[in-house]
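Model it.
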Amino acid sequence: MAASFATPPEMRVLLINYELPPLGAGAGNATANIARHLAAGGDDVLVLTSGFRGLRREEQVDGYRVRRVRTLRRRVDRSTAAEMVSFIVGAIAPAIGEARRFRPEVTCSFFGLPSGPLALLLERLLGIPYLVSLRGGDVPGFLPGDLAAFHRVTGPVIRSIWRHSRGLIANGEGLATLAHQSLPEVDVRVIENGVDCDLFRPPDRERPDRPMRLLLVGRLVRQKAFGDVLTAVSKVRAPVVLRLVGDGPDRSALAELARRLGLEASVEFVGWAPREELPGHYQWADVFVLPSLEEGVSNAVLEAMAAGLPIVTTDVAGNRDLVGQENGTLVQPGDVAAIRSAIDELAEDGAGLRRRAAASRDRALGRRWETAAQAYRDALAAALP
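Modeled.
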């Protein structure tokens, strides 16, 4: 379904994100979908992003133009701090050149860092107003156990980028609250993530299978706490198998934990998967589990909901925006016993699992990317001089 928009009839929009599929995860996916629907609605859209081996420097994708800049990035799924800095440095000249040729009326920076300095530069040099789309780790106070030192160093830069913007966009109330705590006077608009309900669909089979199939999707990092699910699975009564889709620095530790728990035969580490393969993984599964310590609003949870999966996840701000008793179970972060209990309950109550699966699909149908793109366009139009 193509989006259609009200006045102004057309805008020239520059989106800046150091990640765009096939690079990165949720924020890149959001950028691509918003760009696609803005272009379908008649806007002229340019996305400035990172280059990578095998990708064209410039191309047309789904009606919008992509310009990739040279960086030091070495992996598809994640980027180091030094590689992010290389994006800022490598994108300065292309950003100025493209802005002078394309003459965007408004810019949206996905992440305050590393994309924000480029939007600020264009505003200072050429007077192009910009918004900042907050994604999680770029917000001071998010995941303080891991990012406190990073935010102490970068906080002044982040707040300067926010102050010069025409406002912030948060993908959930939790991020909006954190942003206001860091800079009370900033204007924050909440626009929730969307999901492609045509791409992510329930399978043509009745769930659950035997043994019941559990799916985890995401970066293998401490924030996701996937080890809690491995520990829970080692204690469940029901026969289950577990598939982890994703990669990250914790992969070897998680594989070792699975070995120690005697789960090697029932746990599959798929690694990073291209986006076109993800629908098949969701259709394989019976239950989606995400035990995060903290979340913005998870694209993976939305995709699992669209695929008709009941959700077991933690009761943190981004997750409770998506999951309630009718479509899943919320547990406290780190509560392995509660995760185990939720898995056993779904395994032993097939009818209840199917009711929650249907409720997930119904909820996802109300969160399509068309709706999010319309809200982004309203925000961008409001930022125009």
